Amino acid sequence: MKLPPSTHVVTEFVLLGFPGCWEIQIFLFSLLLVVYILTLLGNGTIVCAVKWDPRLHTPMYFLLGNFAFLEIWYVSSTVPNMLVNILSKTKTISFSGCFLQFYFFFSLGTTECLFLAVMAYDRYLAICRPLHYPTIMTGRLCRMLVSVCWLIGFLGYPIPIFFISQLPFCGPNIIDHFLCDMDPLMALSCAPSPITEFIFYMQSSLVLFFTVMYILRSYTLLLRAVFKVPSAASRRKAFSTCGSHLTVVSLFYGTVMVMYVSPTYGIPTLMQKILTLIYSVMTPLFNPLIYSFRNKDMKLALKNVLFGMRLSQNS
């Protein structure tokens, strides 16, 4: 039986990454390696603290622990390949490897958007409806919301990315980026598919739009409730609890919406790489710092985890 001919002749892509001489490449490698290790340690410590400290067995910290777990996978979808690519002379990635990275990068990014919306819902209930909070935000509901975030994130992109992978790629195969992203891949296709491209961007834009609008609505209602609280100490506590989440939302959504909602043809390629680096690499690094520095319970739990690790090493 004769197999049908392949729809593409390109078997691998070349990821140019960041330009520069060998010394600059070594500096970038060292910097990214340190950032990656710190990201794994920071988010991994939060996961361990939430799991081991009974005081953190609440809906807010359950969501935060799952969010930290997500960040480990999100940064791992790009940085290890970037590190290998910097040291590689050919800087190639296989056709299937490129689209697998494309799939995991967008699926994990979508899951992160949904997680941020769920965390905003949790803060809204805790501050605006404190008496009903324990009965509404139960452990079962938390687990269900987390599961829905993962399912929607990973089930939303297989079909559009499969159709993109079936487009003819005849050459050239050079991607002026450090990862396999939508715009560079579509630019290399021999027969562009505006319908597929429109569906993909519409799907991504809808996820961004609805999650960010829900987060803004939740925090508008939340801030209105906080300003009605007579106690200044209670207001400060509420602002401290929500400030960390708002900081993460602003950092992540600000850069993502510039890349995937606004037109990118006017943005220089180097700036696109820097924006992608911020939300895909730097945000997962900053999240543990943002959440731990503004939260007394988390700081105490992290100290207990780190202190316990030192004791186990010394014993």
Automatic annotation (TrEMBL):
Superkingdom, natural source: Eukaryota
Swiss-Prot/TrEMBL keywords: Cell membrane, Disulfide bond, G-protein coupled receptor, Glycoprotein, Membrane, Olfaction, Receptor, Sensory transduction, Transducer, Transmembrane, Transmembrane helix
Gene3D superfamilies: Rhodopsin 7-helix transmembrane proteins
Spans traversing the lipid bilayer: 26-49, 61-79, 99-121, 141-163, 198-217, 238-262, 274-293
Location of the protein in the cell: Cell membrane
Protein's UniProt keywords contain Glycosyltransferase: no
Domain G-protein coupled receptors family 1 profile intervals: 42-291
InterPro entries, per the entry: GPCR_Rhodpsn (IPR000276), GPCR_Rhodpsn_7TM (IPR017452), Olfact_rcpt (IPR000725), Olfactory_GPCR1 (IPR050939)
Membrane topology annotation: Multi-pass membrane protein
Family, per entry: Belongs to the G-protein coupled receptor 1 family.
Role noted for this protein: Putative odorant or sperm cell receptor.
Name of the protein in its database record: Olfactory receptor
Lineage: Eukaryota, Metazoa, Chordata, Craniata, Vertebrata
